[in-house]
Specification:
alpha+beta; Yope Regulator, Chain: A; 6-stranded antiparallel β-sheet
């Protein structure tokens, strides 16, 4: 008996067949049928690990949806949720919904353009009524390069009309962020345009932000950084 068969037998033998265990059992049945009659021990073990991961993710999604339903969202926020769902469904993208904290509803999805990945997050806040769109980069800032990185972010932000590049010192996360008021409502074309503008802006700065985040400087940039750092050290040392 391989590990997959053993897990199925164990669940079948349990007397407490609650909804959570029934879901896991159904998923294991489906995986066993997919693998066929004689999978290798390695395939069976990998299958069990994958099923359990997927099962836990489903339970987590259910809890997040339940948390969202339990909270007493106002009518405007519920309408904005429905509008954002409609836009994402029209874009044919997969997304998840959750409640990061009371009074804030969130959507999250991954996008890849020209091989560049972005983790997109949309937050709806009830008070004040704000919609925030974040495009989070898949790399973080190396602590030793934060000083030249932040200088570069300031320079990059100068040319931006909407939103700005962000650096979070608490976890070294890098992102492009745009926030706007929805006090007087959220409109489909406006949200779609803002979302795509954030994606385009984050994509346009992707290479230079990554270059400075991990210290891959060009020779001229490196010399300029060293020169500025030396001047700062001299001033601080006085």
């Amino acid at each position: 008996m391989n590990k997959l068969q053993a897990e199925i037998a164990k669940l079948e033998a349990e007397t407490d067949h609650n909804e959570v265990n029934e879901l896991l059992l159904r998923m294991l049945y489906a995986k066993a049928e997919e693998l066929g009659e004689d999978p290798s021990d390695e395939e069976a073990e990998e299958a069990v690990n994958q099923v359990k991961t997927d099962w836990l993710m489903q339970l987590l999604r259910r809890k997040r949806v339940q948390d969202a339903e339990d909270y007493d969202w106002d009518e405007d926020t519920r309408e904005n949720m429905a509008l954002i769902r409609s836009v994402f469904e029209d874009m044919n993208v997969r997304y998840r919904e959750y409640v990061p904290q009371q009074g804030i509803y969130a959507f999250e999805l991954g996008l890849t353009t020209d091989g560049k990945k972005l983790n997109m997050k949309v937050y709806l806040e009830e008070d004040p009524k704000v919609c925030r769109i974040d495009a989070v980069y898949p790399f973080q800032a190396e602590p030793e390069f934060v000083y030249p990185l932040c200088q570069k972010l300031v320079a990059e932000n100068y040319q931006r009309r909407y939103g700005a590049l962000q650096y979070d010192a608490s976890d070294n996360e890098l992102s492009y962020r745009y926030s706007f008021s929805v006090k007087h409502g959220l409109y489909e074309d406006d949200f779609r345009g803002a979302f795509l503008a954030v994606v385009a802006s984050a994509h346009a700065s992707y290479d230079v932000v990554k270059q400075y985040a991990v210290g891959r400087f060009r020779r001229a940039d490196r010399e300029e950084i060293i020169c500025k750092a030396q001047k700062l050290i001299i001033e601080l040392d006085q």
